[in-house]
Amino acid sequence: MKQGVRAVRHDGRLQMEACRFEGMVQAFPNHFHDYYVVGAVEAGERQLCCNNREYRVYPGDILLFNPGDSHACTQEGEALFSYRVLNIPQKTLQLLAEELSGYACPLLFSQNVVRNGELLEQLQVLHSLLMKPGREFEKEEGLLLFLSSLALQHARWQEQALSPCREEVKRACALMEESFAGPVTLEALCRYCGLSKSQLLRAFVKEKGVTPYRYLQAVRIGRAKALLEAGVPPAEAGLSAGFSDQSHFSRFFRQFIGLSPAAYGNLFKQADRPQKKEEEDDGKQD
Predict the structure, then answer these.
(1) Contact indicator for 80, 23 with CB cutoff of 8 Å
(2) Which of the given ranges, 1-5, 109-113, 204-208, has the highest pLDDT on average?
(3) What is the residue-wise DSSP string for 224-281?
(4) pLDDT digits over 208-233, tens only?
């Protein structure tokens, strides 16, 4: 049984990715990204859990994830899932937010699932442009117009509420971001933060929406992505990112990104190359 076609294009000028997945059955475990995600559902249904809230996602829905939003999804019904998505760096959206608001303050999507026919059409047109070479002026203008409309209608400019152990969780995150390439233990995190294991786990999940281990894996995947983008071979990228076992690295990378490390690295071997397509067997083992 085929899992479907995955098409991904990296736009070096705009520093963002446009992806289109067709005929998907793959479930994604609880994870998060360090960039904004804007997606349009085109076929099929999914059960989505984001920040401990449950959603049933249908064709025509727009999915909005902030950096750090923990989310997971599973297939629902018999229709295969297809969607298109933009992965937008924080810097791109924050610069726009400053222009719109007049002051530097974090921009956060106020909802994770929205229905907006006008925005959906804009997103589909923009995504189609980004999946092809050329027409740079039109792409940049379309991106700015779309993000402006999206931010004004479905975003807010305000700080998130502070949690009681926010500073301790922040210290734990900093340690994992500094030491991801080597062994990291829960005991070491607790010593560094000054919390017990149970205290850290409760506070971390409440603040970040994922466990410390899942956060560490996301940090490692982020580092591996940067290495693959720089042309580092997958085996070396996995090792440098803290994965001692190549199959372990491939499995986690595919779960988080939806592509194999080799397929992702191939996107960056040539500048402005045609879109890369990958077909994989459902249930294939890494």
Answers:
(1) yes
(2) 109-113
(3) HHHHHHTT--HHHHHHHTT-SSHHHHHHHHHHHHSS-HHHHHHTTSSTTPPPEEEEEE
(4) 888 888 899 889 998 998 899 889 99
